[in-house]
Fold:
Amino acid sequence: MNAPLNHPLPLLDLDVLRTFVAIAETGSFTTAANAVFRTPSAVSMQIKKLEDILGRSVFARDARSVSLTTDGEMLLGYARRLLSINREVVSKFIIPEIVGVVRLGSPDDYGERVLPHVLKRFAQSHPSIAVDVTIDQSSNLRRRMDDRALDITLLTNSYKTSALGAEVLLTEPIVWAGAKGGCAHLREPLPVSLWEEGCAWRAGALEALGREGRSYRVAYMSAHTAGQRAAIMADLAVAPLPRSFLGNDMVELCPKDGMPDIGTYNLAMVVAPDASAPVKAVADHIRATFEVFRETGKF
Structure:
């Protein structure tokens, strides 16, 4: 219902808009309720209140899904902008302003899977810090740190090695990944999908195959995680991956499947010794992210 022109327009509640955005992004009232720490019934009441204020339906609901209406799609852009402005304003008062540019390095695997989420959250809490990201192999990133071309870098190391001055964020098993229902692991010689020389996962996998005397051929080689996943999903090859990288469409291949144990690897972080306040802020945020992952298994 439209408000009379001589009557002040109602104010939208930012907490309600936060819930609205969470539902739009997750496609679920229940999942959004968990994200905003409310019960599903409380979330439903918030959306009813929002729709009553606007006089429009913002979601189309059926038994299995929730989707935005045309009005909901328009509202989503405004809601995100209002929430962003709110974060920026509040941070000016309750978070000491830190301004600067941070040069961050990361291997491709974490640069694709983890960093976008980490940096999105960081930008919300530190809008005045710009983070410039370089994606490269760990060996090249180590050299960039030594040349002072980076302020922080993430590195993957085999379980037998550790970069000097590196802080270990995560130790995780490397496993053989295959397509669900696939048969690549049964072929001889074993078709494997590998990264380029210098990759900790590659070194551990080839050492394990050599130890077992298993013949293999490199059927697919790529420096990018997406390429490795494509080879696995097409059942062209098996590949060594961290256990947490396995998707629902992959399976972990074990000794009972004829695949040898690979071992573990470390994900480490190196921070410049003369780190500025912005660099320390980014490093602290990365540490906190991996603390949460170690406890929950989720980034």
Notes: Residues 212 and 260 are 7 Å apart (CA to CA). The chain has a mean pLDDT of 88. The radius of gyration is 24 Å.
